[in-house]
């Protein structure tokens, strides 16, 4: 009796916006492009809100909507169908809401860019793919969204493609993603082979009755680990995280939207969606948890030494994604999704505010050339401060609730252990430290930056800022309002998690499983104790950062000198990129050059063709001698030929 | 057995051979032409030995008397002189002569080896006009008529080809540069 | 009695001389005469075979060969005259406009 929700509108509206801006944007005015670029995602967001309002009155949850026929091949079916349950509703609201805010912000940030229309076209295209990913009802359609967001990421990272580093970063992101996708695909093949379908409902219905593989890894563990490989690529976990710091070459709104709030969380979403499989494969869960925990710690340590404001945030993203995977890995999927949501708020805010800072100082991204900005850009300072408090996990902001939930589950869940918890706490300390380091270096102390003159920018990492102002200036309202909204969300967004309300909301998807059992075995005292420890650790980070960067600014250098080569290693990201280059990239290029290019292409293919041509030419040069135009040589040939024929005939006759 | 027939055959044969070799050896074409006439005369003698009277007569009248005269006239008309020594075709000398020599030796050897002792009597097949005539006009009438048309065409062709062209300039031959 | 093979050897020798002259001589007219020599050699073998097999057709054929040789000589010499007019030489190596 309920009419269709027309879910398909939500992805398609941004697609329409992308198409219009893509085809007609070049000749249109900035106002027109902005309107198109905002109206369509905005409409998608409003429609998502509408869907959310009608959600509780739906007759059947999960709600599935068939849009179009796609693949019917033998017994395998995959259609363009959409799937809505609590999990996808949460993702939907996060993607459309935060996405829309970032679109608004981009109007201000990218206003001076010559390829303004192209940016919005790509951004809308990204929204389309991300929404497809989130709303898909089968793995294949999700994979289309998965690949599509990878494509959009490539296009947007390399937005300023005339810059070598940007183009290379785009390529790197796409290729590393591809490696993960390979694992993902094999997992999908296994699913098709054993369950005959990629449709969520069909697969999970077949998996649910299976017994957990506790006594050794089996099919489900294999599928789970392969899916995790895909997630590692998309969500930048060890060992496929290397593309995310390079992705900072893209414009800051891109970093905010794709590499903080939405695309990188697709891996977490996918793992959460496949929880049925993971819950029955403890080995795979362990892999997920270990990777997540290690990545969280590893990336956090790198973030401590970085001087580029966006790179700090990039490593912070990798680290926070590690937290989400840690949560999933201990079976606390709803905690992971909760952190995904709050992370979208405060990390998106952090990136947008960083963009505002960069815009204020005329393109400079090195924090050592900033400082004391809080008097110049107070609103940015305020919002960024709120976001920093949130990410550090200081109550009652959003980050505290979600991070604490994860740490608690890591400790107490049946798949968790105190080791995960301990590493998580250490990482929380480091997170708090480097985030406040960022805040203090940027906004406190004296301004170290070059005065921006009309010739442009000091070390502009991107080429959008051309105003010749003499000192840092605040961003326009169109950029500040999204900051404020996100700041508000960072403050109150965590309150949905109080009293396990969020978890109960997602219970129809995940079941009460691990958390309830945990709630029985461990006491409330332990829970509050651990909560106190994590808060203390967060404050400790703040204090240490304050000491090192505000009161005694000479200390960091002394510590760095004392640590010597270890510090160098951290500063150089543990030389992982160099290691990959030596282990994989160089052999591949060398092998390709020597074997495939010189050997196969040149020697075999080219030479075959050339030698055939040369051979034909040589033969014809010999044969050509016959055509000399000289009568007597013709006579000679005739005589010789007839002699041969006569001899042959005689031989025939004599041989009888 | 040295019969008269054999002696005559050898005599005429020797003349023919000498004439042929002389044709090759001489440098001035007029000498070659005269040698050829000698060959033809010798061959007419051979035909007589074989009994082909009509053919012997025709050989002398047509071949030696008309064709060779034509050759001699042309040599005189064109004032052909002694051949120059220009570089000719290597192929002809290298392949042709040895080839032909080899071929002819081979043929001669085979013939002498394998054809046994069949002999042809002197005047074995009398070919008088009385005998040839009916053949020409009965069985071989068609070829006869066609060849007469052929001669007609040849006459016309020769006249056309040899007639003076209407004021076309003479193109001097290209000198070889290597 | 002369064995048939003697006639054939003589005929073959004349033919070979004709071919040789055709190959080594540079004067067009001499080459033509070599061709006539070849034809004569062949005529001899025809007549010899006719006598051997008592087939008058051989002699008739020789008759036709002579007629055709006459026609050919006429036309060939006319061509030589035409060539001489344009190239002013009787050297066959210089009639080489077809050379590459």
Provide a compact summary of the structure.
The complex is a heterotrimer of chains A (656), B (178) and C (100). With 656 residues, chain A is mainly α. Chain A has helices at residues 9-24, 30-55, 86-109, 116-135, 139-157, 164-195, 200-207, 219-234, 243-246, 252-261, 266-273, 275-279, 282-305, 309-329, 333-360, 378-392, 398-412, 418-443, 477-492, 501-510, 513-521, 524-551, 555-563, 565-571, 576-624, 631-654, and strands at 63-73, 76-84.
Characterise this structure.
In chain A, 71% of the residues lie in helices and 3% in strands. Chain A has a two-stranded antiparallel sheet with strand order 1-2. Chain A is mainly alpha-helical and 656 residues long. Chain A is globular. Chain B has 178 residues and is mainly α. Chain B starts with a helix and ends in a 16-residue tail after the last helix. Chain C has a single domain, classed as Helix Hairpins. Chain C has 100 residues and is an all-alpha fold. The chains are: A mainly alpha (656), B mainly alpha (178), C mainly alpha (100). Chains B and C meet through α1, α2, α3, α4 and β1 of B and β1, α1, α2 and α3 of C.
Radius of gyration of chain B: 21 Å
Summarize the biggest pleated sheet of chain B. Answer: none
Provide the structure class of chain B. Answer: mainly alpha
How many individual helices of chain A? 26
The count of β-strands of chain B is 1
| Proportion of residues in helical segments of chain A | over 70%
Largest sheet of chain A: 2 strands, antiparallel
Q: How confident overall, as mean pLDDT of chain A?
A: 84
């Amino acid at each position: 009796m309920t009419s269709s929700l027309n879910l398909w509108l939500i992805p398609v509206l941004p697609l329409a916006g992308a198409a219009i801006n893509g085809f007609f944007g070049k000749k249109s005015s900035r106002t027109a492009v902005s309107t198109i670029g905002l109206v369509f995602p905005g409409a998608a967001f409003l429609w998502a809100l509408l869907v959310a309002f009608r959600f509780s009155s739906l007759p059947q949850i999960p709600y599935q909507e068939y849009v179009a026929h796609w693949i019917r091949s033998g017994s395998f079916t995959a259609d363009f169908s959409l799937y809505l349950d609590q999990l996808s509703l949460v993702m939907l609201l996060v993607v459309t809401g935060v996405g829309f805010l970032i679109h608004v912000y981009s109007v201000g940030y990218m206003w001076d860019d010559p390829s303004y229309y192209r940016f919005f076209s790509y951004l809308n295209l990204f929204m389309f793919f991300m929404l497809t990913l989130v709303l898909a009802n089968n793995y294949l359609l999700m994979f289309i969204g998965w690949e599509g967001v990878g494509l959009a990421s490539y296009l947007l990272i390399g937005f300023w493609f005339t810059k070598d580093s940007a183009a290379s970063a785009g390529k790197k992101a796409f290729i590393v993603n591809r490696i993960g996708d390979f694992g993902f695909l094999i997992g999908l093949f296994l699913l098709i082979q054993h369950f005959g379908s990629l449709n969520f409902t069909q697969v999970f219905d077949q998996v649910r009755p299976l017994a957990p593989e506790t006594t050794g890894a089996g099919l489900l563990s294999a599928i789970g680990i392969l899916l995790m490989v895909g997630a590692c690529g998309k969500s930048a976990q060890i060992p496929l995280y290397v593309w995310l710091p390079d992705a900072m070459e893209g414009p800051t709104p891109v970093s905010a939207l794709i590499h903080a709030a939405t695309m990188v969380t697709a891996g977490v979403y996918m793992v959460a969606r496949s929880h049925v499989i993971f819950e029955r494969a403890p080995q795979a869960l362990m892999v997920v948890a270990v990777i997540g925990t290690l990545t969280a710690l590893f990336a956090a340590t790198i973030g401590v030494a970085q001087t580029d404001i966006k790179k700090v945030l990039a490593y912070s993203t990798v680290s926070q994604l590690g937290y989400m995977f840690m949560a999933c890995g201990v079976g606390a999927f709803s905690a992971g999704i909760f952190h995904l949501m709050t992370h979208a708020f405060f990390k998106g805010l952090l990136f947008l505010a960083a963009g505002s800072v960069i815009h204020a100082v005329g393109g400079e991204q090195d924090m050592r050339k900033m400082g004391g900005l809080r008097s110049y850009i107070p609103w940015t300072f305020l919002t960024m401060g709120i976001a920093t408090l949130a990410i550090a996990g200081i109550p009652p902001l959003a980050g505290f609730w979600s991070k604490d939930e994860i740490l608690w589950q890591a400790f107490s869940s049946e798949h968790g252990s105190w080791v995960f918890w301990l590493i998580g706490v250490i990482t929380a300390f480091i997170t708090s430290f480097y985030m406040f380091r960022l805040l203090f270096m940027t906004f406190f102390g004296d301004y170290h930056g070059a005065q921006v003159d009309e010739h442009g920018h000091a070390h502009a990492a991107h080429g959008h800022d051309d105003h010749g102002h003499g000192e840092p200036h605040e961003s326009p309202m169109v950029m500040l309002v999204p900051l404020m909204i996100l700041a508000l969300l960072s403050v109150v967004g965590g309150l949905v998690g109080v009293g396990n309300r969020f978890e109960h909301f997602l219970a129809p998807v995940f079941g009460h499983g691990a958390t309830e059992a945990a709630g029985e075995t461990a006491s409330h005292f332990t829970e509050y104790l651990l909560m106190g420890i994590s808060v203390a650790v967060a404050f400790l980070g703040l204090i240490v950062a304050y000491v090192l960067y505000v009161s005694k600014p000479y200390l960091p250098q002394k510590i760095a000198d004392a640590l010597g080569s270890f510090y160098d290693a951290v500063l150089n990201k543990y030389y992982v990129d160099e290691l990959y280059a030596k282990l994989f990239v160089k052999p591949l290029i060398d092998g390709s050059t020597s074997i495939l290019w010189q050997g196969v292409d040149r020697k075999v293919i080219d030479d075959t063709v050339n030698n055939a041509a040369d051979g034909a030419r040589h033969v014809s040069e010999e044969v050509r001698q016959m055509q000399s135009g000289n009568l007597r040589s013709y006579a000679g040939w005739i005589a010789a030929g007839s002699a041969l024929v006569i001899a042959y005939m005689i031989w025939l006759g004599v041989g009888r | 057995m040295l019969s008269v027939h054999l002696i005559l055959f050898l005599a005429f044969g020797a003349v023919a051979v000498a004439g042929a070799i002389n044709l090759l050896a001489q440098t001035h074409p007029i000498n070659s032409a005269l040698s050829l006439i000698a060959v033809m005369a010798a061959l007419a003698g051979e035909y007589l030995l074989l009994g082909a009277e009509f053919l012997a007569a025709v050989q002398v009248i047509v071949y030696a008397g008309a064709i060779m005269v034509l050759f001699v006239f042309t040599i005189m008309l064109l004032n052909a002189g002694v051949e120059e020594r220009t570089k000719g075709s290597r192929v002809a000398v290298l392949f042709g002569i040895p080839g032909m020599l080899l071929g002819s030796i081979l043929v001669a050897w085979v013939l002498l080896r394998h054809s046994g002792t069949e002999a042809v009597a002197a005047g074995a097949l009398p070919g008088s006009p009385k005998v040839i005539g009916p053949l020409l006009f009965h069985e071989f009438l068609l070829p006869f008529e066609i060849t007469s048309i052929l001669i007609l065409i040849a006459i016309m062709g020769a006249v056309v080809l040899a007639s003076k062209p209407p004021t076309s300039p003479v193109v001097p031959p290209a000198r070889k540069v290597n | 009695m002369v064995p048939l093979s003697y006639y054939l050897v003589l005929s073959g020798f004349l033919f070979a001389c004709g071919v040789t002259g055709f190959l080594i001589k540079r004067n067009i007219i001499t080459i033509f005469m070599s061709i006539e020599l070849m034809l004569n050699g062949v005529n001899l073998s025809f007549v010899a075979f006719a006598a051997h097999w008592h087939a008058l057709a051989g002699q008739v054929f020789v008759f036709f060969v002579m007629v055709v040789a006459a026609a050919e000589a006429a036309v060939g010499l006319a061509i030589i005259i035409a060539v001489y007019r344009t190239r002013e030489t009787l050297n066959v190596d210089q009639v080489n406009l077809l050379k590459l």
